[in-house]
Specification:
Strand order of the largest sheet: 1-2-3-4-14-13-10-9
Radius of gyration: 20 Å
Shape: globular
Distance between the termini: 74 Å
Number of strands: 14
Structural class: mainly beta
Order of helices and strands: HEHEEEEEEEEEEEEE
Oligomer: single chain
Helix content: 10-25%
Strand content: 35-45%
Length: about 220
Amino acid sequence: MNKTLKVIIVCISVIVISFLSYFFYDIIRYSHSSDWQTYKQYMWVFKDSAKTNINPNFCYSYVKERDVYNNFNYKDSYNIIVWEFKDLGNAELKKSTINQNVNLEDVKFESGEILNKGSDLEFTINYGFVFNSAMNVNLDKYSKIERTFEGANYKGFYGSINQMSLSNEKGEHQILSDFTKGLTPTVFLFYKGHQSFYIIMIYSKNPFDENIIKILNLE
């Protein structure tokens, strides 16, 4: 093997190793860990009368230092997501906006992960996402809001969602959600409580309305 060929092989090897090192570094640093116990720390979000209808066999969490995603199954008919974003503990709820008819077709992330891959609701997350002072929800042109509502420490809507993104105060998309089977009846909430900031989503194949939030402890 001549010297030039050896140099080329070494250079290619270095490039491949560097790429793989960077790739796995991102995974280790930014990806969530799945967990089957953490969700119990978030059961406070339900009123006592609703807790007995939570099926623990289908509850789980994705955990990272800055955020915790929890999935609950209610009455074997509803999926309820309670997602805490710790960086937004001091955010003002009034700064969070609900935007419709947003073009999400071109939303791409250079690197990221997919939560719930292959399920009815997938979340694509930008590695190292940043929410500093606000979070906004953006619905695509196929999604439709039926009603909006708000309380002292929450605001949201009931409607049907196809695709949705969560963007920061600069309008930069950080998280993209996709109901893989098309429009799905959903209640979406921004919630400020327990010295932190949360989004709550309730969705089901069966018809329901915004009164489902009565099972939540939003005081």
